[in-house]
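Progress against Task 2.4 (sequence-to-structure conversion) is shown through the following example record, which the project officer requested during the mid-term review.
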Amino acid sequence: MADKKVILLDGGMGQELVKRGAAKESPMWGAQVLMDTPELVRQLHVEFIQAGAKVITLNSYSLTPERLVNVGAVDQFDDLQSRAFELAAQARDEAGVADVRIAASLPPLAGSYHPESTPEFEAAVKSYRMIVEAQSDNVDLFICETMSCIKEAEAAALAASESGTPYWIAFSVSDECDGVLRSGESIDDAYQSVAKNNPQAILLNCSLPEAIDAAWPQVKNLKVPVGAYANGFTSISAMPLAGGVDMLEAREDLGPDAYARAAMQWVDDGASVIGGCCEISPSHIARLAAVMKAQGVSIVSEL
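Structure tokens generated for the chain above:
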């Protein structure tokens, strides 16, 4: 793989911040930590960069209009989005790595892993446009991530494409390892639904590594760069709508070495974007970076 180039992403922010005592796990952990302990957010970004990540994602996953309305904090939307970017930019400066790119997240609007909670299409587009407007002058790209159904992916893709900023789509697939989205919709249908808006990459994320393995044959031959960043949960079945991931169990068999082996299988099979999601720490990313370098893979920020 001496000529192989791969973009290395960061890992999961939320779980790591909770472990460090930054905030009690809740549906609004992202907003709470930005307000109460921003220095921990900045430090974690720095650690992911030092581990080798060339793309870091804002700590803004829970800062959607829908979630902020639910806790009476929608009036803080602009301030929180700005703070999330400022901390990432400060971390990049502190780490002294100039080629690190900053991504903004376009996440599920109401709650992860529950496609039935997706707002109607026009309402979803409106909310995603708010996030895009708040960040398009700041960030290097958007990642429409943990997309569990076609409707939310289409809405996020439309809003992101209007910005003129590069954007990626990351689909979350079923834990049943049956190669479909969490909604039961096919990956091919999902890709066709967003292809008209020209995403620059198609990824699979926040799913079991084994579920990504099962879905990989459907993405590896797409005519755009492809990749994956898995989570380290045993299952997400115990998590209700808008619940906190504190009720989910972390795997004990997915340490840095094991995760690197799983991720390198995707690299071997065509992935050009790799990283980690929930429960994937800076130590996981550092080990993955070391294995990539040992195998002659060039870690880059852009393809």
